[in-house]
Design brief:
Layout: E1 5-12, E2 16-19, H1 20-30, H2 36-47, E3 53-56, H3 60-63, H4 69-95, E4 104-108, H5 118-126, E5 133-137, H6 144-158, E6 163-170, H7 183-191, E7 195-202, E8 211-219, E9 227-232, E10 235-240, H8 244-262, E11 272-275, H9 280-291, H10 298-307, H11 314-325, E12 332-339, E13 343-350
Helix pairs in contact: 1-2, 2-7, 4-5, 8-9, 10-11
């Protein structure tokens, strides 16, 4: 049977960056018309979010300036094209692949609106083949980086000797709502950052990277209210239910154990946890669940600390860290992310 392998992961960051400590004075200024107790609570959320630094497609002054949805989305479109082009080029150079060797391109983004989608622009910008198969994934949120890999794996298994690129580019900064003083907007502002990543996968013979042993999606029933965006006149307004960590915890055994069993393994045999850092509470919830099995998610916490939650991009930064470590032959990794739907996406890797 034809196998799909991860060849490499590359990342690219926007040009603007700030430490959380540098952002807090802007938060205080933004909330100057609110009650002192509320303002202090929000500052504590920023300080306790587990994010030390983040990157953005806009400078901090621009983020806190009142502009229209159209203006923010125009910035998103311009910068996403640039980051997508840069990260795809970087990954191709890293793998030693020619631009015209790609057979399949999947682009992932949920933080802005573009028609034609990013992949169409990349075909022109990089001179990709005219017969390349394109798939834009636009509405799967934080889970979409893993979703893109699942779609690529299915394509590659059906087509021996082919190459695929999954490009995730996100700017939660562009969705920040200046006049929304809900706790959801405060929490999302405290944890999210911008970034881009590209995963190259192949069904060619003799690939050294980890093999995708199996992959599945898990859909929670009647849970569409937990996470997503409302499309408003001021832009994409975050939906983030505080019950998310509890719901994940409740479903966790059903998400993980049957999946691993179907592919002839178990949590005891899994060496590496490539987990998407949705936020501090979700990280803590999953850490408690994995910790009881003698596992850790230190790489997940470090990615959250260094970059924030970049939606679909973030788990790919965690995956890159594991590829750089060079796990031993035969070791396994569980890739796991959660997103709107509500859903969990899972991939079992074997080095």
């Amino acid at each position: 049977m034809t196998a799909a392998h991860v060849v490499t992961v590359a990342k690219k960051l926007p040009k603007y960056t700030r430490n959380t400590s540098d952002i807090i004075p802007f938060v205080n200024l933004w909330l100057s018309g609110q009650e002192n107790r509320f303002r202090r609570k929000v500052v504590k959320i920023f300080e306790g979010a587990g994010v030390d630094r983040r990157y953005g497609i806009m400078d901090i002054e621009e983020v806190f300036t009142a502009t229209s949805f159209e203006e923010k989305n125009n910035i998103y479109s311009r910068e996403v094209k640039l980051l997508g082009e840069q990260v795809l080029q970087k990954s191709l150079q890293k793998a030693g692949w020619e631009v015209d060797s790609l057979d399949y391109i999947i682009t992932v983004s949920c933080t802005g609106i573009m028609i034609p989608s990013l992949d169409a622009y990349l075909v022109n910008a990089l001179g990709l083949r005219k017969d390349i198969v394109r798939l834009p994934v636009t509405e799967m949120g934080c889970a979409a980086g893993v979703s893109g890999m699942i779609y690529a794996a299915n394509f590659l298994r059906s087509n021996p000797g082919k190459r695929a690129a999954v490009i995730a580019v996100e700017s939660p900064t562009a969705t920040f709502q200046l006049n929304d003083f809900s706790m959801t907007n405060m929490v999302s502002a405290a944890i999210f950052g911008d970034g881009a990543a590209c995963v190259l996968l192949s069904s060619e013979e003799g690939i050294d990277g980890p093999k995708l042993v199996g992959e599945e999606m898990y859909h929670f029933t009647d849970a569409t209210h937990l996470m997503g965006f409302d499309l408003t006149n001021t832009g994409l307004k975050m939906i983030l239910d505080p019950d998310v960590p509890e719901v994940i915890s409740k479903h966790f055994p059903e998400i993980v154990h049957p999946f691993l069993k179907r592919f002839g393994t178990s949590m005891e045999k899994v060496n590496h946890l490539v987990f998407h850092p949705g936020g501090k509470k979700i990280v803590r919830t999953v850490e408690e669940l994995f910790g009881s099995m003698g596992k850790d998610i230190e790489d997940t916490k470090e990615v959250l600390r260094d970059y924030g939650n970049m939606s679909s991009v973030t788990v790919l930064y965690v995956l890159e860290r594991f590829l750089q470590k060079g796990p031993e032959k035969g070791e396994q990794g569980l890739v796991l992310s959660f997103g709107p739907g509500f859903s969990a996406q899972r991939i079992l890797l074997e080095w």
